[in-house]
Amino acid sequence: MARHTRKPLGAAVARRPWTRAERRVVLRGFLGRLTIAIEPMIVAVFFAVLPVALLLRRQEVALLMAPVFALVAVAFFVFAIVMIAPSAHAVLETFEPIYTVDGYVRYRATETSPPQYYVAVLDADRVTLGEWPLRQWPASIGQRLMWPVVVEFSEYGGIHKIDGRSTGVLPTEIAPFGVGIAARDAERNAGTEPRESPFT
């Protein structure tokens, strides 16, 4: 997730550690991805071991098929890593602070075609602390681009809460192993949430 910083988040910005409940949500999202990635990992191990087993049984075809099996094993292993990496990164980010600022939230759209949308957190002096991409323009804000709020955010995840109300970036609860994420993502894609959560 791209974040464009305009001002270093120094001691002047209030910060707090992640709560156990917040970290549990991220860990459950990671475990959900891990359970899905187990299958391609098993397939990768199978194709890595197969030529060795054929050689032990003195099957000459193993020498011909070994490069093919190796490529398949690498492909499945890379696929598993790609599935796990974002969630693993999210877990590591829970050891970074969550910031709170009494400032502003600003939305903007680029003049490119198609336009790209961004949301930013500004401090009381209207200096940008961080900016994150949006998938679509939030219909609920209308044409208002900036307003004063108390914002809770993290560098990796973006805005967690605006005036105490959750943005959906970090759900308040998630089932073990991430069960139900697909249904929630379907609701988000229907327009209830403007951006994907990096934590689940």
Descriptive report:
There is one protein chain. Residues 189-194 have low confidence and may be disordered. This protein has 2 domains: 21-93; 97-167, no CATH class. Helix 1 packs antiparallel against helix 2 (61-93). It is elongated and about 75 Å long. The chain is of the alpha+beta class and 200 residues long. Strands 1, 2, 3, 4, 5, 6 and 7 form a 7-stranded antiparallel beta sheet that branches. It has 3 helices and 7 strands.
State the main characteristics.
200 residues; seven-stranded antiparallel sheet; 3 helices; elongated; 2 domains; alpha+beta; single chain
Number of strands: 7
Helix content: 40-55%
* Structural domain count: 2
Give the overall form: elongated
The number of distinct helices, counting runs of at least 4 residues, comes to 3
The major beta sheet can be summarized as: 7 strands, antiparallel
Q: What's the average pLDDT?
A: 81
In short:
This protein has helices at 20-56, 61-93, 181-192, and strands at residues 14-16, 98-109, 117-122, 128-134, 146-154, 158-162, 165-166.
List the SSEs and their pairings.
Blueprint (H helix, E strand, L loop, with lengths): L13 E3 L3 H37 L4 H33 L4 E12 L7 E6 L5 E7 L11 E9 L3 E5 L2 E2 L14 H12 L8
